[in-house]
Amino acid sequence: MARNHGYCGALSRKHGAILMAPPPAYLRAALLRLTNLFRKQKLDSDLSDELESHLQLHTDDNLCSGMSPAQARRDALLKLGGLESTKENYREIRGIPFFDRLMQDIRFALRTFRKSPGFATIVILTLALGIGANTAIFSLVNGILLVSLPYPAPHQLVSITGTYPKGGIVAMREQVHSMDVASYYEGHEFNLTDYGEPIRLTGTLVSAEFFSVLGARAELGRTFYHGEDIAGGDNFVILSHALWQQRFGGDNAIIGRSIELGGVGRQVIGVMAADFRFPSPQSQVWIPLHNDPRNTVLYWADDFMPTFGRLRPGFTMDQARAEVRLFQSHVGGLFPWPMPAAWNAGVNVIPLQSSMVADVRLRLLMLLGAVILVVLIACSNVANLALARAATREKEISIRAALGAGRRRIARQLLTESVLLACAGGALGLLLATKGLFLLKSVLPADTPRLADAHMDWRVLLFTGALAIVTGLLSGLAPALRSSRTATSGALRSGGRGTAIPISQRLRGGLAVAEIAFAVFLVIAAGLLIRSFWALSHVNPGFQSARVLTARITLNQSFCSDSQRCLTFYRSLLDQIRSSPSVSAAAVVNTLPLGGRVAKRSMDVEDHVASSGEISPLFWLNIITPDYFRVMNIPVVSGRDFKESDSSDSHVAVITAETARRFWPNQDAVGKHVRLFKDKDWRTIVGVVADVRAYDLQRNVPNWIGGTAYVPYNSTATLEDARVPSEMTVVVRTDSDNSRTEGLLRSAMASFNPEVPISEVKSMNAVCSDAVAAPRSSAFLFIVFSGLALTLGAIGIYGVLSFLVSNRTREIGIRMALGSPKSAVLWSVMNEGGKFTLLGISLGVAGALVLMRVLSSELYGISSNDPATFGAVSLIVAGIASLACYVPARRAMQVDPLVALRYE
After folding, report:
1. What's the distance, CA 314 to chain centroid?
2. Which of 387, 400, 386 is nearest to 492 (CA)?
3. Which member of 128, 379, 420, 465 lies 3.0 to 4.6 Å from 425 by CB, making a disulfide possible if both were Cys?
4. 62: left (phi over 0), alpha (psi -120 to 50) or beta
5. Are 239 and 284 in contact (CB under 8 A)?
């Protein structure tokens, strides 16, 4: 034990000695160099004193040897090798050479900027515009496309591209073992009636595993447990943080209480965190799915829902993809009826984040590409300015070269100046980007996925810093190389005129050509988007939106369990509205055109033979009251409209012209029959109306919808479940302003049932405007960017020609003194600018012809190679460039020959 103790003690002393030992020599030298950076002034003073003492000693020795004072000091300086060079060598030994030289370059650059504040200001503002626009767009791209979803292990979250009913999702959960599966169906609405004034809430129906698959926890209370989406045990609700704060005052005691949603009492079990916004920020409540296998229709034929999952440990996405495709191959056999072979064909498993942003990815990347072109144009402009300035600094640079500065040293100095200006532009651009991001969020459609996640974070700051440095290097590289190459070209002998003007002029011309080409490319893209937006906004939707006001009326479904009570309510409400002198017609409809809702039902069609494996065609089913076609001004092509006399026993229907052409080509559809799936009685088609753009302005219905039918609201009580829809939209054609009509609707509702909220009050003009929000925002942003690009391009052409005129002043004066007319001088300068413009336009058009195919999916009613757009843009750019050429050309005409001949 004693020996062990002694050994341990010796070992401890050895380790202590190691710890107390001085650091290695290389580390001591590095630390000394680092320390010297912070006491440079004292070290320089000590060095000067020491060198002066050495100089004095040598001088005294020379004086003693009989030299004169001047000769003695000169000889002493020669022995020391020069005071300044000796100081410089010592500074390199004691400090960090790169850092020292960098600080020298920065100090010199700042002194240079103080001497030419105009140049520095123009460069900073030009780069700030380009960098600011890039930063704002990158903030969107970062928040929407790049930042991971705010859930644990987001790379394990996947989306299944197919949609499934409740029964299919339950089967997938039991049979797929590579991942945990959940589903949701957003867009449901519920009346909250027992907490103050009734309001309409937007909710999402979710499977019990919804939150656990995401890995999201409640801020207060809990989320759903497994099995809490089964009928009989699903009367729960989870609130959003915003709803909890606004409606319930942030009361923690809300957990465990019961609230009435849609006439059903539900226990509040949790409140989500403020940043939880899945599947969209519009979700205010999350309610369990009502899984009831006993109700075959709702279990297997109700809404087909998006499905997502989380990979289990040890499984890859490829394994999950193979397992889901195997499941899809036999899930159709679980349905009570045959499923079409095309259903979920090509089902895939992809990252959840990619699935969420698939619709906006291309649009955002297009905007990012546009602003990258803008910053390249800004770099070209700054490079042109720097080249012009370099021409005035040739004498200074040649003097520095004559004093011993190498080409590399001169180029580094000029690049330091460029990067400093770019960093200043980046700092200003960052301030502009904060305002720009706010503007972008207001311009983009409110339903843009993950829009709320876009903000300035460390990634954006890092991007801006890197962009500023790269921009500085790009804009300063050509001037730095050009200036360092001409440093010894004889600027001193040439009297300051320089000998490299032709090469510099060609370089400046090339930069101007690049600016014009980039600008043409952007303006063509903007022109195509503008024409597409114009065509889309002037599509005939099949109805007249002027003077039509709409409002969503949301009765509880329990109220409409008695069909006659529901019918009486809406009939009385419409009578009350029609009694107003300002109302010419009023009706209700279950789905408003372009309103974002789709009501679908399978229908049997007379004389239609389904192909093998196909079930009855899926129809968009519009449930309306008489006068709906008159309110919306939808023309009746053949047959008749609905009448008040069409009772629940009439069994009538109206279809659209497109539906008639599909199922009864070259026949009269009036008198034919259709039947709602599982109904006993056929419905007689009494009329055919014009097609309506119900889904979006580009198409009438989605591709998976086979036709469109209208049935009277008072005859829907004969449906299989003997219920009528409770949620309807009132449409009113009125001669008064919208606010007055809205007041009329609210007062009429208050007189019938004050607990029924009215929501989504908007004019049909506003509904149509919302339908083109995405293309409108893209066109607007491209207009802004292309306008900026055109302005910078015109400035570039103007700068090149101004530089050309200033350097040809003596030549122009000689030509005019020899009798050359002013028109010839004008033509000479305009011809020079015309060459740049024509070459830039040609390159821009050629690039656009190749790359504009990317825009094809964003265009409507126009080709991505539309010759009219390409031609118009070329003429516009040529006209703007001609104006930019004319100003310096006119100045050249006004040159005084006598002054020009004395020009040096």
Report:
1. 35
2. 400
3. 128
4. alpha
5. yes
- The SS3 call for residue 651 is coil
Quick check: bond before 279 cis, omega within 30? Answer: yes
Q: Which amino acid is at 532?
A: S
Name the nearest CA neighbour of 876 among 743, 783, 738: 783
The listed range with the strongest mean pLDDT (343-352, 357-366, 436-445, 736-745) is 343-352
Q: What is the pLDDT of residues 777-836, one digit of tens each?
A: 888 888 888 888 888 878 877 777 777 677 667 777 777 777 778 778 778 878 878 888
Determine contact, residues 97/363, Cβ cutoff 8 Å.
no
Residue 805's Cβ-side half-sphere holds a number of Cα atoms within 13 Å equal to 25
Q: What are phi and psi of 635, to 5 degrees?
A: -70, 145
Burial label for 769, CB within 10 Å (0-12, 13-18, 19+), is: middle
3-state secondary structure of 450: coil
Structure tokens at 793: 């391009």
636 forms beta bridges with 689
pTM of the model: 0.77
Confirm if 221 and 241 have CB atoms less than 8 A apart. Answer: no
- Contact indicator for 286, 238 with CB cutoff of 8 Å: yes
Which three-class secondary structure state does DSSP give residue 608? coil
Among 588, 663, 670, CA closest to 622? 588
Token pair, residue 804, equals 């050309």
Distance CA 396, CA 484 (A): 11
DSSP state of 230: B
Residue 324: other Cβ atoms inside 10 A: 27
Distance CA 212, CA 183 (A): 12
The residues that bridge with 371 in the sheet, in sequence order, are none
Whole-angstrom distance, CA of residue 6 vs CA of residue 411: 66
CB 735 within 8 A of CB 546: no
- Own/partner contacts of 242-249, CB < 8 Å, gap of 24 or more, are 242/274, 242/284, 243/201, 243/284, 243/285, 244/220, 244/271, 247/192, 247/195, 247/196, 247/199, 248/195
CA 255 → CA 181, 244, 322, 483, distances in Å?
27, 10, 42, 73
State the Cα–Cα distance between residues 590 and 621, nearest whole angstrom.
9
Residue with tokens 């397992």: 323
**C-beta of residue 254 within 8 angstroms of C-beta of residue 247:** no
Q: CA-CA distance, 759 to 768, in Å (whole number)?
A: 18
- The tokens describing 12, both together, are 């401890």
Residue 2's pLDDT band (cuts 50, 70, 90): very low
CA nearest neighbour of 653 among 635, 632, 672: 672
Tell which residue, 547, 584, 588, 544, has the closest CA to residue 690. 544
Would you say residue 237 has pLDDT above 70?
yes
Token reading at 490: 């004889």
236-239 and 264-272: which strand pairing? parallel
CB atoms inside a 10 Å sphere around CB 372: 17
| Burial bucket for residue 221 (CB in 10 Å: 0-12, 13-18, 19+) | middle
Count other Cβ atoms within 10 Å, centred on residue 809.
17
List Cα–Cα distances, 461 to 147, 473, 593, 785, 904, in angstroms: 14, 18, 44, 22, 48
CB atoms within 10 A of CB 852: 20
Return the DSSP state at 143. Answer: I
CB 634 within 8 A of CB 692: yes
Helix (H) or strand (E) holding 261: strand 258-261
**Parallel, antiparallel, or unpaired: how do β-strands 727-734 and 305-311 relate?**
unpaired
Between 349 and 105, name the one with better pLDDT: 349
CA contacts within 13 A on the Cβ side of 192? 20
**CA distance linking residue 476 with residue 723, whole number of Å:** 74
* Structure token digits, residue 887: 């100003």
